[in-house]
Amino acid sequence: MKLNVVTIDGTEAGEIELADAVFAAPVRKDILQRCVVWQLARRRAGTHKSKGRSEVKATSKKVWSQKGTGRARHGNRAAPQFRGGGKAFGPVNRSHEIDLPKKVRAMALRSALASKAADGKLVVLDAATVGEAKTGKLVASLKKLGIGSALIIGGAEIEVNFARAARNIAQLDVLPQQGANVYDILRRDTLVLTRDAVKHLEERLQ
User: Fold this and answer.
1) 38: which DSSP letter?
2) How many H-runs (helices) and E-runs (strands) does the chain carry?
């Protein structure tokens, strides 16, 4: 698969040959769904907590007599049915992480890249660099390229000026090549890769 390479200013910068094993792989929606669920589960803090009956500070004195009151028998104010009592079967601190094999994760990333390529939503930049950190100029350049909602994946490190210019643009994410992941690729309309990112992803996924 061949794709035209453009500069950030919109001029052509030659062509690039994309590896079919990565950018023309079968698009497995079931695998994409599994990977997105896995990523979002790992993000959850799991710090939700409510106090149980044994953790609530309350008197253990019997609230009223066992018999003769006409009311139900009770013994402890910390019981869940009382106001201020402990929560029955409430949430506790725990990890929400689930397991997903590395091969499945790699397959999901290939599927995500291939889906963008198949939909014509893949753009290859010569380099993600700008002369000065001006958000307005970067917005104008992206508009010229027809890029709105996008994920831009650069080289091993994002150029400082580019990162500063892009950080205040709505619906634009910028990641280094090692941070490429399925969820961020799918949540934006367009995927923009630099030449370095293409090379890195092909080496990583072939």
Assistant:
1) H
2) 7, 6
